[in-house]
């Protein structure tokens, strides 16, 4: 008996890959235009906080996301890093001093 698309693990994975790409693109584009914390990005985009944290790590490793400043989040009131994916807003001078 042949399996249907609904039971095909590859079909289910393809949907997850599409969600991943869409969420990553949304986060990247949002942080191109805004400097925001993970909580602020989650509130603005509707993407779950834990997903954004995973994408944040991937983007940092790729050299495409920078932590700008740690201060009180406008959304939660707790101290958090404000992030950007816009290289013009990143402070490269501070990063170079670390090495």
3D architecture notes:
- It is a single chain.
- This protein has 4 helices and 2 strands; from the N terminus they run αααββα.
- With about 100 residues, the protein is α+β, with helices and mostly antiparallel strands.
- Strands 1-2 form a two-stranded antiparallel ribbon.
- It is globular and about 35 Å long.
Key traits:
alpha+beta; 53% helix; globular; disordered N terminus
Count the beta strands: 2
**Residue runs with pLDDT of under 50 for 5 or more positions:** 1-14, 93-99
Shape: globular
Q: What value does the average pLDDT take?
A: 83
Largest sheet: 2 strands, antiparallel
Query: What structural class is derived from the secondary structure elements?
Result: alpha+beta
Count of runs of 4 or more consecutive helical residues:
4
What is the H/E string? HHHEEH
How much of the residues is beta strand, in percent? 5-15%
The radius of gyration computed from the alpha-carbon positions, rounded to a whole number of angstroms, is 17 Å
Arrangement of strands in the largest sheet: 1-2
Termini separation: 61 Å
Helix content: 40-55%
